[in-house]
Specification:
homotetramer, alpha/beta, Rossmann fold, 2 domains, nine-stranded mixed beta sheet, 11 helices
Chain lengths: 373, 373, 373, 373
Amino acid sequence: MSRLKLGMVGGGQGAFIGAVHRMAARLDGEWDLVAGALSSDPERALASSRALGLDDARSYSSFSAMAEAEAARPDGIDAVAIVTPNHVHADVAIAFLSIGIHVICDKPLAATEAQAQDIAQAVKASGKCFVLTHNYTGYPLIRHARELVKSGALGDIRVVQVEYAQDWLAEEVSNKQADWRTDPSKSGAGGCVGDIGTHAYNLASFVTGLKATSLSADLSTFVDGRRLDDNAQVMLRFEGGAKGMLWSSQVAVGNENALKLRVYGSKGGIEWAQENPNVMSFTRLGEPKQLLTRGGPGTTAEDTRIPPGHPEGYLEAFGTIYSDAALFIRAHDRDARDTQGSLLPDIHDGLAGMAFVTACVDSSSKDAAWVSL
Amino acid sequence: MSRLKLGMVGGGQGAFIGAVHRMAARLDGEWDLVAGALSSDPERALASSRALGLDDARSYSSFSAMAEAEAARPDGIDAVAIVTPNHVHADVAIAFLSIGIHVICDKPLAATEAQAQDIAQAVKASGKCFVLTHNYTGYPLIRHARELVKSGALGDIRVVQVEYAQDWLAEEVSNKQADWRTDPSKSGAGGCVGDIGTHAYNLASFVTGLKATSLSADLSTFVDGRRLDDNAQVMLRFEGGAKGMLWSSQVAVGNENALKLRVYGSKGGIEWAQENPNVMSFTRLGEPKQLLTRGGPGTTAEDTRIPPGHPEGYLEAFGTIYSDAALFIRAHDRDARDTQGSLLPDIHDGLAGMAFVTACVDSSSKDAAWVSL
Amino acid sequence: MSRLKLGMVGGGQGAFIGAVHRMAARLDGEWDLVAGALSSDPERALASSRALGLDDARSYSSFSAMAEAEAARPDGIDAVAIVTPNHVHADVAIAFLSIGIHVICDKPLAATEAQAQDIAQAVKASGKCFVLTHNYTGYPLIRHARELVKSGALGDIRVVQVEYAQDWLAEEVSNKQADWRTDPSKSGAGGCVGDIGTHAYNLASFVTGLKATSLSADLSTFVDGRRLDDNAQVMLRFEGGAKGMLWSSQVAVGNENALKLRVYGSKGGIEWAQENPNVMSFTRLGEPKQLLTRGGPGTTAEDTRIPPGHPEGYLEAFGTIYSDAALFIRAHDRDARDTQGSLLPDIHDGLAGMAFVTACVDSSSKDAAWVSL
Amino acid sequence: MSRLKLGMVGGGQGAFIGAVHRMAARLDGEWDLVAGALSSDPERALASSRALGLDDARSYSSFSAMAEAEAARPDGIDAVAIVTPNHVHADVAIAFLSIGIHVICDKPLAATEAQAQDIAQAVKASGKCFVLTHNYTGYPLIRHARELVKSGALGDIRVVQVEYAQDWLAEEVSNKQADWRTDPSKSGAGGCVGDIGTHAYNLASFVTGLKATSLSADLSTFVDGRRLDDNAQVMLRFEGGAKGMLWSSQVAVGNENALKLRVYGSKGGIEWAQENPNVMSFTRLGEPKQLLTRGGPGTTAEDTRIPPGHPEGYLEAFGTIYSDAALFIRAHDRDARDTQGSLLPDIHDGLAGMAFVTACVDSSSKDAAWVSL
């Protein structure tokens, strides 16, 4: 089976997440990167494209030129990966969707609710696939956790504790990554809560299958002069009565990418941490705690590539999103539409994430009053 | 030096915390238990007292009889340990304090704010020592953490995450321990938040040296028919701008006594968990995480009994409270009053804990509105 | 029930293990320390004894004087704890046993095989109780591990990996503890292998119930000028075909008291580490790993004092040896002899430990040739 | 820069390590798989090749046909990956080397010493690159450990404890992976010791930079009817006086791929475990233990792809071997020969591994007598 053809917008030299998308796309051999508008600076775009071995003819200096040209080629791209800062997502996504090209977009969905709605409309109008890279949902044990919840092994969900702690912004930092993330015009109204809080929120929803109905948020900015929050503390209420706490921080010294999820129900509890993602604890009420391993006893080997005890990591989880996207897009292109059973985060997750950020900012501005979602 | 003489109210057969107090008191050889009103049931009181090898003459069937008799004896007790359910603390404490006997009292201070104030008044009027057994403050690494904060090694405190999770009340349970703890008339207005939330709150304050100025609490009761909360989620604001989250739960399946404290400042962070209390991580911003061990490199051996790598536990930390109490009481009896430098939790911590419970219940009843402390 | 009366030989000011024995003896309220020959230096003996609150009349300047005097008193001691350097054990033990006083003796049994045999003869001749404080056998999960093996839950034992690593002798060290341990005339022919290797060996035997039939040892002395081994690497062959490795080291930088045991059989495996002794992993072949906790689901609460999740440690395990010794001695004194079911390490374990040290030294001197046990 | 062209021998449907090599080769975009003799069964070879999207013209049914054809093509492969069972390595390697094609070969080098020597001769005669995929040397923290040792941060190396424990062969197992690994005609004289013991041995040598001078090995076969060892216990003596223990097992119930390395020197110690490879402890004598993270403070970000806290795993380490191989081969092809500074395991490591297996089998057959290396 021939590989799908991928284009990329953003991700030129000096960027972080673009390289991640490229490795993820390569890992399972489902995609070939063949075109790019890798930077808004034409020189950097070309240099980046050459470093990646792309054909000069498919190195574009604007995403709109790229959309038009690729749509016109018989061997044009099947999908575009959008890996720009948040405020650019909407224009790019709409350009490609409207011209009939599938979109794989980094999170959060956009910088503003209005942009998010525009994208949603374009998705609907185009009938094209839209995948949002909430990559942590690609971890096999996270998918297993979701199955455990679904199967009733945890009983009624009562408590959801989720957190994502980092420390890279504990001081004033100036570099390409930090600059746009702390700039409201590029990042949107949420700082830490948008950048990583949305991951935590998405993960909790993905595993529990529950929607939060309201939240109360206390956002803080601890570093002088910073214009967006760098620490978010949120209480959540879920449909069905479960209660949650979400903490995201970029100033928690000693934490690198400490995304952790704990879910407790009437019959069982699970605990998982991203930094060592190949193990998850699972306790049935009154029984000893079990350590489930990725692909080990009591779990399926689905979505895993190598035997238990050989660690898979962040790139493999991300790669699963890309491989699932390939499956999804092939099915879509073959059958017009077949989203049955896909675990891929989509436009609805993107809108939910935007609503979460908006509600957090709103609640925090009202002294952490409860805000509906 | 001869040992101090201890009496005990409560803690008869079938009780839990009384036996803990007795082991803690014995550990360092500073105390002899010589008298008791171990149960309100005279037969059980006598049987319990005999099982402990007490002189029948000093086995009392009421605490008031005990207070009078012991105060009258030339070899009467130096202090009484109160290990009854919460609603009895006040009467007992006042009886002993007013007759001139020092008090060591289990937490929380009382079942109601009014009782708490009565105790506080009795402490003040009597001039006697009053120690509240927030035993977790006796862990050497917790005391070291406090020193680290005080020394400025963490910089300005920004974020305080504290939690105490258990699962023993995940279902309806009926036994001596569960019954009074879930009975508002004995436990007070707080269930889980009073029983273990106060420990978490006290620990955070002890280590950071910060007072919370307000809180927003969402209390839940997940088990049908239970009359008090079994899960508490609280957001905290501290003087100086630090923000905190506190979670206490008795329904978090897979957790036994998972008390955890994490404190992050502008220069460093610490993380500690009670279930493996002989290690604490400490990270200076930009440096590798260090694992400090109890009595190991970078810590003092103060308040430790055995070399690093030989684990001390809950009873040793509790024993430190008793040994410090002995020191404190000897100093008091010698010098009229010498509380300089004592780390012992006292009446002020007791009142702070009561205020915390009251505020949580109040806030929760107002849809988690902020309540001042 | 009145407490048993304990005497102590050794353990004066500056000593380590004497204080441990005293705390262990106090913990459960089964023993009162009433007499001591705490130092061979009379002044230090008296000062030490007063610091402990002993009656001056029962502070002896020689163990032989103590044995005679205590045997003659109507309220004489029930047992003596021997906490001297190894080379003194035999004389003291024989003195007390022959005069009819039970002995609790620190490990290893003696400095030489000849001394060990003399003690064994005295035990036999006297009919008195002899307890060797291989304290790690007092850990509840170690006892549970023994039960698991006995129950067949692990199947046929195949592999036993045991180790005890420290780093306190990684450099030349001079203090009371180090000096006698590195002096062949006091410690015996084994250095590290005698001091902690015997603990590891005893633990492996205790849990598996297997005797080693032969061993091959490579002892090393890494610190210049040291006269005894500070690192021991040993291969073991057990009856029934199991194979083992034992490593003990006092120069393994970064290890405090890292005693670890792993046992694998045809049906299951267990793993336990002393530094966090309240958890043990247990895996049945083909099933998820379980984390058993002390007193938690799947284990008994026997030999535990406090609920799971409240850590017990080294002193509690040591205390269990003392409490079991009290039970054992009471039963013996009542029924002439009742050792049925006692888990206490005894003279046979002491002889086995000596044989282990002798074999290791012998094997190592023969280029690690196999030596029978 | 255009990608290097890779061929593969072995690795058809049902194989394990072939897929790993392919993912590793893809990850960093340095290689394109363009040709294969994926199975000795022509039908399976073709089916496998089609599933991978190879051109039918470059799907060969024999490795010799492939070597000739590819050498003759102007766009022939730059290197061949050999992922067959051990006994086939030599013939394949020699065929490709002699015709001028670089070789990347799975470990161990061969099934017999004679085969190994033949390969070595072919490497020498051909002047071509030969890379042995001791993939664990690709873990960034393992490379950092090597640097630490080299820098003198650990002082003189004293003790090396290495182990690789699995449990997948704890019972009789029959499948493609198990069958050849337990068949002496395919695997060679070593079972577990050859399959994973060589990894452990290589890792210890790689990190310490030390060669073992002699060893004493006790190999066991615990599963009835198995023809090769499934458990190996080995004592090692290194040049310079360091002592080591190596344990490899395929019957250690509860272990998946528990490769662990601990190295202790006069000034420091390190501890690392493959199952959570993004953290390594490092202790300087007398200082707190540090937890170094991949790319985190105190380490370089070399050979890492993503920020610390985002776990990389087995495939990334394997990918680093492939990317380094690409660098190495490009340099070789450009400059005739430039191996300066390469960390890649090569023919010498392969021979050392074979010598290790031979010595273990030899020693074990002589009751674990010391055998020189």
